[in-house]
Amino acid sequence: MSDAIIRIENLSKEYRLGVLSHGTLYRDVQSWLAKIRGKEDPNSKIGLSDSDHLKGTNQRFLALKDISLDIAQGDVLGIIGRNGAGKSTLLKILSRVTAPTRGTIKIKGRVASLLEVGTGFHQELTGRENIYLNGAILGMTKKEIDRKFDEIVDFAEIEKFIDTPVKRYSSGMFVRLAFAVAAHLDPEILVVDEVLAVGDINFRKKCMGKMKDISTSSGRTILFVSHDMSAIQNICSSAVLLNKGELLYSGSAAETIKKYLSDIEINENGKKEWVAPASKQYPFEDVVRIKRFYIANENGEVVKGRLFNSKHYDVVVEADLVYGDPRLIFAVNYYDDSHSLLFSADIHDAGGTDFSKIKPGGIKLSVPVPVDILWNRVYEIELICALHHTGWVLQPDNQSRIKFEFFRDVDLNPYSNDTRLGALAPILEWTISS
Q1: How far is CA 416 from its chain centroid?
Q2: Which of 85, 229, 281, 307 has the fewest C-beta atoms under 10 angstroms from its C-beta?
Q3: Can you give the residue ranges of every domain in the chain?
Q4: What is each CA distance from 278 to 84, 275, 290, 397, 401, in whole angstroms?
């Protein structure tokens, strides 16, 4: 296997859908016997022909299709993709929860898995007993588990409840203990699914730090599934993108995330634009008539999908200037994902524009999207327009808001993913004097 600790070759997993589904063994056997004898199913629904019924019983679903992948020792591999892409199926096969239909997997070392809340726990046993049970399953001696016991309990923060049956634990307590056991019992390979999303934000941060630590300090291999792209970029050295059971892309974490996000659109029509309704009359139409408001890429095209800080974008306003009124003002408001106003960019911020000097007719205004200060989240922007000290053309909280999701694919600060808080992330230059 050379230096590969996991080698996956032509791996496929197939499921048969709706083969026997009448709810009782007796009826399922009846249907099965009727099928092999070529007779009508006695349990088929009224109004459903036999051919229609049999047609539905042989449906096959390929959850994974010919996956081939080598994972080296010490790799921290992120596995990303939409729901139903095959991520959890792959982890279950690697964890020996289910068997592949075709293909081979070669693994060197012990595998500890955290696939869902309560994985590997016996409900009637206490937290203490489950720690020793999981250690024994991993092949550890009692002395080895004893040395790790206090560290596990401290990390899980459940000292008061360690001798309580885990069936009385909350989902958060389950996850804390399960992760602590999986991370501290020295497996060569740690497999973690999206289950960490159940924990609170402080514990998730603690888990990310622990995974980063065990990969760098002890050279253990980690497979991590998450929909949190910041977490994937933070702890993973590489990543793979699955789509409908197929391996679509494999590369560095940053490039794989960029590929994934660029293929997804978050608006229903996939466009970041607002078009003024033709039937609606806005104030001061004898001065200006607003037509469109959108985000454009470097080629002037309306943007689809996510925005990245490695590219340039403009917020663009198209309007008909009927009369060059010097009181005319345009502004753009930026909101975070909780709809709180972050800042406003006014056309007069950098010296202003005197519209009395602009020839009436079609005009296009543009202002750059400040990608250097945005962080990994969803933002909203809206267009504001008014005649200074006179009245609104488009007042705040109007219908012009357009939404976009931003991802920082190039970060000048290598530590930012660990420390960033808040809705904005400006890169500011510091000076030190003595």
Answers
A1: 18
A2: 281
A3: 4-261, 273-407
A4: 41, 9, 10, 20, 17
Topology, domain 4-261: Rossmann fold (3.40.50)
To which H or E segment does residue 291 belong? strand 288-296
Largest CA distance in the chain: 93
- Cβ(151)–Cβ(184) under 8 Å? yes
Q: Amino acid letter at 185? A: L
How far apart, in whole angstroms, are the C-alpha atoms of residue 344 and residue 289?
22
182 burial level (CB within 10 Å; 0-12, 13-18, 19+): buried
Say if CB 406 and CB 313 are below 8 A apart: no
Candidates 43, 27, 81; CA nearest to 249 is: 81
> What digits encode the pLDDT tens for the residues 265-295?
554 445 689 999 988 889 999 999 999 999 9
Scan for tokens 């760098």, then name that residue: 216
- pLDDT at 50 > cutoff 50: no
- CA gap 105, 100 in Å, rounded: 9
**In DSSP terms, which residues pair with 317 in a beta bridge?**
293, 365
Section 25-50 average pLDDT? 67
pLDDT single digits (tens) 126-170: 999 989 988 887 777 888 889 989 999 998 888 899 999 988 988
Residue 364 Cα to chain centre, angstroms:
36
In contact, 79 and 242? CB cutoff 8 Å: yes
Sign of CA dihedral 72, 74, 75, 79: positive
State whether CATH 2.70.50.60 applies to domain 273-407.
Answer: yes
3-class secondary-structure state, position 390: coil
For helices 142-156 and 127-137, angle between their N-to-C axes, nearest 10 degrees? 130
The neighbouring-strand residues paired with 381 are: 334, 402
